[in-house]
Amino acid sequence: MTPMFSLASPLPSRILAPSRILACAALVLLAACAQKPVPAGFNDPMEADNRQIHDFNRSVDRTILRPLSSSFGDGPPGPVMQGVINFAQNLDAPGAVVNNLLQGRPHRAAENTLRFALNTTVGIGGLFDPATAIGLHGRPTDFGETLHVWGAGEGNYVELPFFGPSTERDLVGMIVDIPLNPLRYVLPKPEDNIVPLAKLASSVGDRARYSETVDSVLYDSADSYAQSRLLYLQYRRFQLGQTTGEAGDDAFEDPYEDIYGE
Fold first, then answer.
1. Coil vs helix vs strand at 42
2. Domain-embedded: residue 9
């Protein structure tokens, strides 16, 4: 596949690329700025296809991720894995800053910028997290949240191969976040590949850390697909501030109660 942007391009093109992305993103956001109602339940017209992908993802987890993550043990990650997780989170910080600005949240952009600067320098490239120790906790974000801030609805529920539960809005956000991270234009080749590799290693660490919960959902549930869908939508809506008070009660859907409308 031909990359969307090439680090071999002339310098002016590399400098202009992020601004073009932001300009296109701004047009998308302005087009979606109508206020959307708080979502309740779920929209899953592609359930049959989603279930097939879910079965595939379960097989990948059973044969690869679960055995691999079990080598790290259960519970809190050890020093090495924690360093990998910190490193991956630090690499995401510049993209979070860009999204903070697109969301009109300069205070969060400033906090994430300070976190990145401190953890990259004092934290030895992000392996350690001194920013949290002094109260700079930051807040992860993504382009899916940016679309939400500007009024885009979550769309239909989808399950993605290897990536798992998502929505149409978050799928668009995931795609846009790849070129939106400024580090992609700063790191030379092949060092730029460290960003996706670090995130992959971090995901294995998360699988080990939450192994009991993941195993319960995927292998102990009466319907692991419905349970995964429920948990993802509730957690995502909670992240976006959509599940507080009465709205939170309306958004709850029991995955085992009349899920087929019978």
1. coil
2. no
